[in-house]
């Protein structure tokens, strides 16, 4: 055989070897590629999801979609934090594959991908359900770490139940495992400027009364300060009010499960310049400070000096003409950007609040209860 022919055959052989190596390195047919979604069809189903279940070795957490909002099943259906629910569902749909990892079950514990039922497992089994499919998505979620070059994303180890293949994926997947962590924690959300006065009544009868004369006053006054004494900390006085207007829960129970007569704490009545009256009653049970709330609208709380309009009708009070805009003198109708609400708005606010809180008892952080449970002696000191 001529040398030229031998050289050509050798070249073909080398090319064949290179091609064989390249083909052998190609992913197996059907194996997802880097950059693909873990669940390609899930994004089109996110609005159909009506239940989310997160199972760990210690807890099962179930989010159920109702007519108007999401609720936490293990907390008697109390409303969930909707933004957290949305982020979890969309986060699952947006997961993208980075690379395949081990298929060996004995190595799952290194990635946090053991079955949740196994002793010592740290994994989370997540199930999304729709009306048509009780397992629209099911995934075991393991260890997470910040993604390289993108602190807003995480590298996450996952696998699908029944499939030994594990994967490293990238995404943003906040998954709380304790039912209480999914609750909508906001209880009250008023602005301090609206508050005219707060009265705190202690179980033994002592009362604490704080007030101010107009919304723009920065500080609340403490009534009946004994001669020779002064307010020791204006911050602490203001903080009594500031705490009540922004209450947040640690836990929640149906109202019937807390006995508010057995071990009562303080009672608080908060009144606003625009007619809202809020009642908060505290009781101690199971080492927690529980609160029950109610609200009412009282037009008598709206004083004529705050507005030329009649709180009942919204019409100008007879004989009083509104000042021209910009003059800033005399009593004038609150501007649109006023912190005070119109009577009909306050009534709507009261109805909404009562509807939300009427059947529930709220476990409040102890330090917050302490903030608004001060005795007068806690807020004053001797002059000089």
Protein architecture, described:
The protein is 19% helix and 30% strand. It has six helices and 19 strands. The protein has helices spanning 3-25, 82-93, 108-111, 234-245, 343-357, 366-372; strands spanning 49-55, 60-65, 70-72, 78-79, 96-100, 124-130, 137-147, 150-159, 166-171, 195-201, 207-211, 221-222, 229-231, 251-254, 264-272, 276-285, 288-297, 360-364, 380-382. The chain has a nine-stranded antiparallel β-sheet, covered by helices on one side. It has an eight-stranded antiparallel β-sheet with strand order 12-11-10-15-16-17-18-14. A hairpin with a 6-residue loop joins strand 6 (124-130) and strand 7 (137-147). Helix 4 (234-245) crosses helix 6 (366-372). The chain is elongated and about 80 Å long. Mean pLDDT is 86; it is low at 1-29 and 305-333.
List keywords for this structure.
elongated; eight-stranded antiparallel beta sheet; alpha+beta; 19 strands; about 375 residues
Give helix % range. Answer: 10-25%
The largest pleated sheet is described as: 9 strands, antiparallel
Shape: elongated
- Which stretches are low in confidence, meaning pLDDT under 50 for 5 or more residues running? 1-29, 305-333
Cα end-to-end separation? 117 Å
Mean pLDDT over the full residue set: 86
Rg calc? 31 Å
Q: Proportion of β residues?
A: 25-35%
Query: Going across the major beta sheet, what is the strand order?
Result: 4-3-2-1-6-7-8-9-5
Order of helices and strands: HEEEEHEHEEEEEEEEHEEEEHEHE
């Amino acid at each position: 055989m001529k040398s030229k022919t031998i050289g050509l055959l050798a070249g073909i052989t080398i090319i064949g070897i290179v091609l064989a190596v390249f083909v052998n390195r190609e992913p197996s047919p059907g194996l997802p590629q880097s950059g693909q979604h873990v669940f390609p069809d899930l994004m089109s189903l996110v609005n159909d999801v009506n239940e989310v279940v997160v199972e760990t070795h210690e807890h099962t957490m179930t989010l159920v979609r109702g007519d108007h909002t999401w609720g936490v099943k293990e907390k008697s259906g109390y409303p969930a934090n909707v933004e957290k629910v949305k982020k979890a569902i969309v986060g699952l749909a947006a997961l993208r594959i980075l690379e395949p990892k081990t298929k060996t079950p004995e190595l799952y514990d290194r990635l946090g991908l053991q079955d949740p039922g196994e002793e010592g497992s740290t994994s989370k089994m997540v199930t999304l359900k729709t009306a048509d499919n009780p397992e629209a998505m099911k995934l075991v979620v393991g260890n997470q770490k910040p993604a390289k070059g993108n602190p807003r994303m995480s590298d996450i180890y996952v696998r699908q139940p029944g499939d030994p293949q594990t994967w490293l994926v990238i995404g943003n997947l906040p998954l709380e495992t304790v039912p209480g962590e999914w609750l909508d924690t906001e209880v009250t959300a008023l602005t301090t400027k609206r508050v005219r006065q707060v009265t705190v009544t202690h179980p033994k009868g002592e009362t604490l009364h704080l007030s101010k004369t107009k919304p723009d006053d920065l500080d609340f006054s403490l009534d009946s300060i004994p001669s020779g004494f002064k307010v020791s900390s204006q911050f602490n006085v203001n903080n009594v009010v500031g705490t009540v207007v922004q209450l947040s829960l640690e836990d929640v129970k149906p109202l019937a499960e807390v006995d508010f007569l057995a071990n009562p704490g303080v009672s608080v009545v908060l009144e606003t310049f625009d007619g809202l009256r809020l009642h908060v009653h505290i009781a101690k049970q199971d080492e927690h400070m529980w609160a029950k709330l109610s609200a009412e609208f009282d037009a008598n709380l709206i004083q004529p000096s705050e507005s030329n309009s009649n709180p009942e009708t919204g019409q100008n009070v007879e004989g009083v003409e509104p000042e021209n805009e910009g003059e800033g003198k005399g009593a004038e109708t609150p501007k649109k950007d006023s912190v005070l609400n119109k009577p009909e708005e306050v009534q709507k606010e009261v109805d909404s609040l009562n509807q939300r809180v009427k059947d529930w008892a709220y476990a409040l952080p102890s330090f917050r209860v302490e903030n608004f449970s001060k005795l007068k002696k806690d807020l004053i000191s001797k002059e000089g």
